[in-house]
């Protein structure tokens, strides 16, 4: 029987990155497409000598193929179920799946789990799937079957939240909704024993910034007796940890009204009083203008300032300006947790921007901790592009 998969043949020399297991084929590497192909199709990739290299999903654009296997496989239900099983086993191995005090974790982290185009976050029985490619979108029923088989009765519902993440021009219906089970979009989860309400439908990303779990835990250790500013606080993750660590006072600032409303509810849910917590709907730059020397501990976790390489220079200027204002707002002997989640901003770039900020406001700064994304957001060593979250915990003289 003829092979049903369209063949993609690479230019000589362009097979090298695939031989090193990098999972992307750029359109410029393609010499020939042997047959008809449309967005989302499974394709097989070969070198110029006819040697098989990989299988993946085709997409028109710069990244033409996203590789899901470096072996020649039949990508049916059994293949995808086995892949989900490996992702789950990894979460069991790192102590997240089945944890007593944490019911939220990332189960599938795109390329970091050899699933290009798919993110799936587990929220206490509800899985929120985000598809970034048509290839993954077309597999959604197969994926739901796989999750149900692997998670068994621990899985109550699967919500697809791909409306905003599928390629803008993709010719598929885009809507959010439950693919399995039901719910009203609001869930309660536990993280390190603290409780949070999560709005999976209206909230940002899949609902919660799961990637800050370890950094929130670290912050708790520095909070005792401190006046804390949680800038870009979203639904109050860092604020609740600071309160549970014995902070004297916490101010949460975010420009989103719904995020601030949920922050207040999350503070109450954990039994803390609004006498020690204040939630402010405001712009970060505006707020920091009047905050000189006002806090002992600040968290600065802005949205990505650069989504593309062209925006890098401006983004670095933005990080420097923001960090200068935050360092100025810290009392002598205070601590700053500062982050960048821009994939195009490297760890070194970010460190230089923060260094520039300290020099600008003439404060001495030492690095307490280098921060990163947690292990349920793994980075495939062959795909360094997957490392996006970087941060520094700083001691400010
Ligand atoms: N630290 C949070 C995640 C922060 S996400 C956590 O652990 O959950 C970034 C947040 O910045 C979003 O909630 C967004 O609403 C907010 N934001 C974006 N631009 C802003 C601005 N100019 N001023 C204040 N907040 C802003």
Question: Could you state the order of secondary-structure elements as H and E?
Answer: EHEEEEEHEEEHHEEEEHEHEHEHEHEHEE
CATH architecture verdict of the largest domain: 3-Layer(aba) Sandwich
By CATH, the topology of the largest domain is Rossmann fold
Q: What is the CA–CA distance across the termini? A: 72 Å
CATH class placement of the largest domain? Alpha Beta
What is the SS-derived class? alpha/beta
Domain count, please report it: 3
Main-sheet strand order equals 16-15-14-17-18-20-19
> What's the main sheet like?
7 strands, mixed
How large is the count of helical segments?
A: 10
Topology, element by element:
Blueprint (H helix, E strand, L loop, with lengths): L5 E5 L5 H4 L4 E3 L3 E5 L7 E5 L5 E7 L4 E7 L7 H17 L10 E6 L8 E6 L2 E6 L2 H5 L1 H12 L5 E4 L16 E4 L5 E6 L2 E6 L13 H8 L6 E5 L5 H8 L4 E6 L2 H13 L7 E5 L2 H6 L5 E6 L11 H17 L1 E11 L6 H14 L4 E8 L17 E7 L1
Parallel strand pairs: 1-4, 9-10, 14-15, 14-17, 15-16, 17-18
Antiparallel strand pairs: 1-3, 2-6, 4-5, 5-6, 7-8, 8-9, 10-11, 12-13, 18-20, 19-20
Helix pairs in contact: 2-4, 5-6, 9-10
The site of S-adenosyl-L-homocysteine has 18 residues, from helix 6.
Structural summary, described in words:
- This protein is α/β, with parallel strands linked by helices and 397 residues long.
- The protein folds into 3 domains: 6-69, Archaeosine Trna-guanine Transglycosylase, Chain: A, domain 4, CATH 2.30.130; 77-188, 2-Layer Sandwich (Transcription Regulator spoIIAA); 209-396, Vaccinia Virus protein VP39 (Rossmann fold).
- It is built from 10 helices and 20 strands.
- The protein has helices at residues 16-19, 77-93, 134-138, 140-151, 213-220, 237-244, 257-269, 284-289, 312-328, 347-360, and strands spanning 6-10, 24-26, 30-34, 42-46, 52-58, 63-69, 104-109, 118-123, 126-131, 157-160, 177-180, 186-191, 194-199, 227-231, 249-254, 277-281, 295-300, 330-340, 365-372, 390-396.
- The strands form 4 sheets. A 7-stranded mixed β-sheet has the order 16-15-14-17-18-20-19, with helices on both faces. Strands 2-6-5-4-1-3 form a 6-stranded mixed β-sheet. Strands 7-8-9-10-11 form a 5-stranded mixed β-sheet.
- A hairpin with a 4-residue loop joins strand 5 (52-58) and strand 6 (63-69).
- Helix 2 (77-93) crosses helix 4 (140-151).
- The chain starts with 5 loop residues before the first strand and ends with a strand.
């Amino acid at each position: 029987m003829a092979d049903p998969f369209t063949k993609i043949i690479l230019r000589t020399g362009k097979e090298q990155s695939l031989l090193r297991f990098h999972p992307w084929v750029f359109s410029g590497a393609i010499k020939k497409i042997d047959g008809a192909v449309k967005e989302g199709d499974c394709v097989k990739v070969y070198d110029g000598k006819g040697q098989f290299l990989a299988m993946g999903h085709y997409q028109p654009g710069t990244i033409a193929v996203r590789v899901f296997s470096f072996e020649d496989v039949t990508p049916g239900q059994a293949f995808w179920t086995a892949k989900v099983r490996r992702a789950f086993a990894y979460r069991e191995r790192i102590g997240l799946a089945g944890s007593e005090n944490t019911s939220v974790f990332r189960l599938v982290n795109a390329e970091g789990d050899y699933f290009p185009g798919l993110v799936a976050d587990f929220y206490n029985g509800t899985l929120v799937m985000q598809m970034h490619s048509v290839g993954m979108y077309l597999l959604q029923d197969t994926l739901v079957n796989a999750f149900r088989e692997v998670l068994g009765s621990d899985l109550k519902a699967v919500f697809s939240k791909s409306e905003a993440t599928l390629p803008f021009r993709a010719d598929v219906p885009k809507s959010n909704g439950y693919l399995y089970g039901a719910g009203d979009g609001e869930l309660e989860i536990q993280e390190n024993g603290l409780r949070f309400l999560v709005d999976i439908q209206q909230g940002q990303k899949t609902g919660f910034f799961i990637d800050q779990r370890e950094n929130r835990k670290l912050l708790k250790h520095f909070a005792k007796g401190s006046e804390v500013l949680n800038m870009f606080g979203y639904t109050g993750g860092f604020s609740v940890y600071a309160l549970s660590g014995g902070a004297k006072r916490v101010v949460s600032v975010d420009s989103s009204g719904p995020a601030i409303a949920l922050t207040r509810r999350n503070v109450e849910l954990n039994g803390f009083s609004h006498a020690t917590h204040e939630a402010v709907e405001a712009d970060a730059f505006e707020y920091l203008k009047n905050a000189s020397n006002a806090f002992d501990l600040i968290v600065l976790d802005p949205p990505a300032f650069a989504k593309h390489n062209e925006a890098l220079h401006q983004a670095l200027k933005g990080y420097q300006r923001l960090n200068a204002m935050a360092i100025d707002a810290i009392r002598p002997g205070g601590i700053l947790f500062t982050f960048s989640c821009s994939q195009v901003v490297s760890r070194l770039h970010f460190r230089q921007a923060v260094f520039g900020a300290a020099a600008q406001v003439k404060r001495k700064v030492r690095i307490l901790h280098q921060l990163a994304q947690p292990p349920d957001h793994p980075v495939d060593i062959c795909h360094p592009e997957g490392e996006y979250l970087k941060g520094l915990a700083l001691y400010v003289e």
